[in-house]
Amino acid sequence: MLIREATAADWPAIWPFFHAIVAAGETYTYPRDMDEATARETWLLTPPGRTVVAVDDSGTVLGTAKMNPNHMGGASHIAGASFMVDPQCGGRGVGRALGEHVLAWARAEGYRAMQFNAVVETNTGAVALWKSLGFQIMTTLPEGFRHPTKGYVGLHIMYQQL
Predict the structure, then answer these.
(1) Mean pLDDT, to the nearest integer, of 12-37?
(2) Per-residue confidence at 139, pLDDT binned at 50, 70, 90?
């Protein structure tokens, strides 16, 4: 698997799984009916942010990540990131590879920490992955997320010092 900068030409491959994940309403705080233009603007970042894709040997997009300063001003030394893996490519290490890539990027860019603002507690696969990569749950906002089938569930804020 290769992780490279995302380009505008990658968007048609990203949009179908991005749309399906967001519309399901189980893991992201984005509006479930987010339109494609808004999604593209939200996901394909410009500097100082960065968006990457993980592709297989044939160039098929398996997943994507965006990384950026999590805060501005006096807290701009904290990075943030978001990840989406095509559900058809789950279990192949794509999320882990993207997570490791993002952490390496943040270190190389001089960030002192990375913070995930909103990890839905019922997204147990993601929570386990981030913990295995060194993140800690700093707090959980009780009933911070309205899951479409489980009702109100906790929303974790996760953190790792770099």
Answers:
(1) 97
(2) very high
> What 3-state DSSP class applies to 130?
helix
Q: How far apart are CA 65 and CA 44, in angstroms?
A: 9
135: helix, strand or coil: coil
Going from the C-alpha of 69 to that of each of 20, 119, 126, the distances in angstroms are 26, 17, 21
Question: The tokens of 59 are what?
Answer: 């160039």
Q: Report residue 149: phi and psi, to 5°.
A: -120, -20
Token representation of residue 128: 């386990």
- The pTM assigned to this predicted structure is 0.94
User: Token digits for 1?
Assistant: 């698997």
Q: What is the CA radius of gyration of the chain?
A: 15
| CA 88/CA 67 separation, integer angstroms | 23
Cα separation, 13 vs 70, in Å, equals 26
